[in-house]
Structures are given as structure tokens and as C-alpha cells.
Design goal:
30 strands; 8 helices; TIM Barrel; about 600 residues; Immunoglobulin-like; about 30% strand; Jelly Rolls; alpha+beta; 3 domains; 8-stranded parallel beta sheet; globular
Amino acid sequence: MLRKEYPRPDFVRQQWQTLNGSWFLSFDDDNCGLQEEWYRTGLPESQDILVPFAYQSETSGIHDETDHEIVWYQRAFTVPPEWNGQRVLLNFGAVDYACSVWVNGRLAGGNTGGYTSFHLDITKFLTSGENQLVLRVVDEPITSQPRGKQRARKENFGCWYTPITGIWQSVWLETVGSSYIDHIKMETDIYTGTVDVAFWLDQWQEELSLECTVFFHGEQVSRTEVPIQRWETGFSDVKSRRNGSFAITIPHVKLWTPEQPHLYDVQLRLKRDGAVQDEVQTYVGVRKIHADGAKVYLNDRPVYMRMVLDQGYWPGGIYTPKSIEEIAEDVQRTKDMGFNGARKHQKFEDPYYYYYCDTMGLLNWCEMPSAYIYDEDVSLNMTYEWQRLVQRHYNHPSVMAWVPLNESWGVDQLKTVSKDRRPIHHMLTLYHLTKSLDTTRLVVGNDGWQQATTDIIAIHDYTQDPADLTRRYNAFKADRFSKAFSHNLEILMEGFPYEGQPIMVTEFGGIKVKDADDTSWGYGESAQDIDDMVRRIKGLVDAILAEDEISGYCYTQLTDVQQEVNGLMTMDRQLKVEPSVLAAVFRGR
């Protein structure tokens, strides 16, 4: 059950070592660990935990769903002798929520944000032989930190589920030279085959150059090498900036689409006076996403979005799948059911999810896990983590849209009569902040209702009656500010008129089948059996397809999640309906 694969398939270094596996874990319910210096003395009363699974999960080996707001981790590791003379980076895929990291009793750094990856240069803290790594994690059940569908109540309710705390994605070491590539940003031009590459280093040094080689199916198709010049501005001449850019052209370029997900392998080598300091393997898909009038276009061709809501909860592991094969199977099943896209709901997923969407061809909406009632802490926490998530996932060709808010969660005051305008400004800030980072994708300002500035009008409605759905939509067409849909909230806020954007029904359905005592959760009246469920789905899909103004939909949902049992599969991925039957329904026209 140990996750042994290289954890970051879109930014690969060859010399690495996993730190997944058995760690020690201690709960610090009295918050005494810092005062008692556990980072130096070791953890008292510890128990074994299997990383990267949260202690609440069965797979972790602990399976304790009690809230413990402060937890500590510890493990020993040894750096291979052949790494001597190189810098060592300690990487975390995700730690929920705020953590501090010590190596051999010395503070190495920390991170805030439960979904963002981070790394620390720990070279100066290492000793020969065995080293000790300690983490302190704080994860409070509060609504001001982005938590998505993790409950902040004592028990699960409705469509909120078991929370997770601490390490929930892989941990690993890797080596770099005196300078290294921190991250890159690639923008593609479908007409010329040009890839504009912006890069950021950890530091600028003299005599640096960056070599970029592009391959297609193992054959070199393009190569360039550029010197990295010292770059200053009129406002600062003390220290060179650490970023730069260059362009490389791919001849006779093949475009990325869900039907033909062509990818080009990219090798980046950072050199200093000719000697390689860092080498990274990544890939690029050349494609264009834009909206024009009421339609969405992929590579200048209109695309009708047939999406499914996917919450990314896994049997045994909660947030963390046991293997990457499970992720690949989810992506393949999604395509087999007739969908061309997925809305990963209230979660940023394991990096292999986006990798398989890229390689197998599945469009994706990336959605920020919500905070809830608006306050200044929400604004600070959301904007900080959201920017880093956009930056981290920018290069995936499968990602076509960003969703910073869902159903006014995090700006909940909008649902009541209030003179407080701060939630509106926060919503507008997230839209424009996203655009400041990425002008190449669509941004959905507030998925579901109460939308202000947005690239897509996104509607949620859970009526189970196709005729009722049609009636509700006709009322919306007659008055764009009406409260026509099932949640009795306006789709467009006053002062933000409809400007001809594409319109999609981005949540609907949620149909569950009646069980023995009908106590599990779902939307509306339960279907009598599977055949009744399929008939209802078809009726709702056909009602959406019949409206020419609508340019796509997202069905709720791919799998059951704990007490919510309205998935097309069970939580352990057993099919309720043959994919070919669903494909005939969802492909429609």
C-alpha cells in the first residue's frame, strides 16, 4: 500500500527518494509540544501512521475520526552518500492545514494551506548518517480556512464529510545544484506552434543558461539554449531578479484535444558555465480555450461541455487514493460514461489526476475548496492559497476553467439582506486576481448563483422533473435576475446584467435510488430502482440539450461519497449502470 511512484509527474527530477511509509504520530491536544520541544526531544506516546494517509482514514492504520487540532509527525531518514555536494530539497505534496518543519531539531520552514505543495532546502540542516524529520500540524475545525467538503461539525451532515488532518499527499527528497528551476509557466500558440516559457529560479548566478529540448514520441523536434542575463529594474539594482522567459517553436504542431491528447515531452536543463545544475522533465499540450458569445471554443471549434461532478473521496483513504491506478481508472470511467470533462468539486486532487486528464484526454475545471462565512481571515487565506494553486496547475492542458467560489460559500452573507459590500468585493477580487495570473482560461466567478463578473453563467438546480427544469429555465430567460431555480437565489446579482456569456447547468441530477430504510442522503425523492434512475437522468439531460442557449452541463455526480449516495458508481467504484448505457444518455447530441 506504499505509494512508491515519483509524486509529481509533470515536473520530474531523476534523483529522488520517497519518504512515504511508516512515521510516528502524536496528538497534542494540550498544545504542549512546542514548550516541551518535541522537535528536539522526540514525540511522546506516539503511534505508527502510514504516510501519506491522514490519521482519520482506515488506510493510515489509525482510523480515528476524533478532532485533534494539533498533531506531530516524526521519522528518520538517511541521505544517500552519492548526494554529497548537492543541495537537498524536501517536498510535500499537501499538508492540511498549517505546519512547521524541523530537521535535526532546527527549524527548516513551514507552510500554510491544505492543498498547496511546497518544498524546503534542508541541505544546511543535514548530517551524515541518520537524520530526524519532525512536523507540527495545526488544523482547526473553523470556517475561515479553506476546507471544501470537510465538515467542521461533530458529525457528518448532508453533503459534508469526514475531515482530514496533516499529510495527505506524498513526501520526498530530491537533489539540485547551486541553482535550480523553481517553477515554469508555458503558454502555447496554436497558429504558430510557439511555446512561450516563463521560468523562475531559486536564485540568479553568473554564467547561467537554460537549455530546452522538445520531443514527440521520443524524437527531438525542437531545441534552444538561452543565456540567463542579470535583470534589474530602475527601482532596484542591488540583486538580480530570478526570472526570465524565452520562446521555442514546434514545427507541424499537433494540437491537444480530448479525442487526441497530443503531448510533447519537454526537457529543461539549467547550466552554469556548461555544467548541469538542475534537470527537469515536463510536457506541454498545445491548445486554446476561449469563449465567444454564448459558446466555448477549444482550438477555435465550439465544444459542448458534458461534465460530471467528481469530489475525489476514496474508499479507505478519504482524500488519498491507495494507488495511481485508481486515479487512472476514474478518468477512464468518466470518459467511458460519455463525459468530455469533469468538475473536480471542492478539492485540488493528487497530481496524477491532472496528469491522467492530460494524457488520456479529459477537460477539467479546477475549483477552490471553500471557506464559509466571510471575514478578513477568509479573504487572506483564500487569496494566498488560490494564487499558489493557480500557479501550480497552470501548465496542465486539460485545465480549461478556474472556479474560485462555489454557491456563495465564503461569501455567505450574500444570501441575506445585508449592507456589507465586502463579500461582493472579495468575489470580484478573486475573479480579477485569477485573470491577473492567467488570461488564457475561463474564470467562473461564483459557480451556482449570485454571480457578478464571470466568464460562464453557471446554474445549479436539483429539480427531479424535466418539465419543471424547462419551466424554471424559461423563467430565467424571461428575467435574468429572477429567483427561478430550486435554491430560490438569483443567478445574476443586481448590477451585473447578462452580457452574452456561455450558460451552463453546472449542477443537476443528484439522483439516488431508494434503499431499505431510505436514510442515506441525496437530492429530491429517491428513484425506485436503477432503471428509474436512468430514466430520470435521461429526462433531465434531454431537457438541457433541448435548450439551444445552454452550452454545457455537469451532472452530480461520479461516485457516492460516504452518506451521500447519488453517484453513478458506489464509493468503492462499483458500477451501478453499464458505462455504454450512460454514454448514450450523456452524449446526447
